[in-house]
Amino acid sequence: MGIPFRGQIMIHHGRRWIMGKPYSLDLRERIIGFVEGGGSRREAADRFGVSASCAIKLVDRWERTGSVTPGQRGGSVGKLAPHKDFLLGRVKEKPDITMPELAEALKAQTGTEAAPASLSRFLIRHGQRFKKNAASQRTKSSRCRVSTR
Length: 149
Fold this sequence. Notes:
The protein is mainly alpha-helical. The chain folds into 2 domains: 8-65, Orthogonal Bundle (Arc Repressor Mutant, subunit A), CATH 1.10.10; 81-129. The protein has 6 helices and 2 strands, in the order ββαααααα. Strands 1-2 form a two-stranded antiparallel sheet. The longest helix is centred in the middle third of the chain and has 14 residues, at 52-65. The radius of gyration is 26 Å and the shape is elongated.
């Protein structure tokens, strides 16, 4: 069956990849100790089985901040978050509002410009689901009609 996945899947421009997890603090401290003991960054990378880039960036971080802890991952709020109540309220008032109409209302009310696709993704993330109603769909295609001959 396989090992359950515990990482984060990223999708960007149609490509998917799995975000790696940060190395342990223990490993990070051993790399710093090796370099401070006279070893080179590339030697540390070979010795501890990490990429040269990882060791170089880790030592740079250590020299710059004095810390080996990994930086914050994610946490981006986005420009629509402060307008959550306005957007959800507008959709509740008018459930059949289109995304371009919602974008215009947001700009008029708050001055914030947002693409209709961004608004759609934001609303889906906040539990809104949009389905076509029966009035906007074709009843039957012409190929399904029964002839009366």
